[in-house]
Specification:
The protein is mainly alpha-helical and about 190 residues long. It has a single domain (about 5-175), classed as Orthogonal Bundle (Endonuclease III, domain 1). It is about 55% helix and about 0% strand. Strands 1-2 form a two-stranded parallel sheet. It is globular.
């Protein structure tokens, strides 16, 4: 059987593995959702392949993006992270991860969980698109704009509509595998 992937996933083994095993699969694990929110923010202005290359270092530096740990990060820890060559050393992005960890708890108090918050925008059912080619896939949608706007109201940073749309794709809220992709419904 011939395996067909979304074209973006054929650039490296890391991208193939990520595409085949994670991208577009409905995700409900709370910490993994928060991790993906943070990683998508880290990607802003960069490539996802760079994030995948630095993934292990990022997870180690940010305690696997556990918000319970991240809220304890102080200015000394942030300065230490800025010296870590294995991660994205952007002060605004690093600060946003720590800041968003604090906002995560506020959001959970209000909505129950990040999972409930995100999935409520689609009535807890993934949107399955029928794109013939990647050129048809938008960078953002009215849905990602609405979620971004609400996250901003909740105090989150680095969560614009394009970042949010990437998050929705990554965690399977939106299935944007092209129609001939072997992993569309796997």
């Amino acid at each position: 059987m011939t395996i067909t992937r979304c074209a973006w996933a054929n650039k490296s083994e890391l991208e193939k593995t990520y595409h085949d095993s994670k991208w577009g699969k409905p995700l409900h694990d709370e910490q993994e959702l928060f991790k993906m929110l943070c990683l998508e923010g880290m990607q802003a202005g960069l490539s996802w392949s760079l994030i995948l290359t630095k993934h292990d270092n990022l997870c180690e530096a940010f305690a696997d993006f556990d918000p319970h740990v991240l809220v304890t990060y102080d200015e000394q820890k942030i300065e230490e992270l800025l010296q870590n060559e294995g991660i994205i050393r952007n002060r605004l992005k690093i600060n946003s991860v720590v800041h968003n960890a604090r906002q995560y708890f506020v959001l959970c108090e209000k909505y129950g969980s990040l999972d409930d918050f995100l999935w409520s925008f689609v009535d807890h059912e993934p949107i399955i698109n029928n794109w013939e080619s990647e050129s048809e896939i938008p960078a953002s949608t009215p849905l990602s704009e609405a979620i971004s706007k609400q996250l901003k109201k909740e105090g989150f940073k680095f969560i614009g509509p394009v970042i949010v749309y990437s998050l929705l794709q990554a965690v399977g809220i939106v299935n944007d595998h092209v129609v001939d992709c072997s992993f569309r419904f796997n």
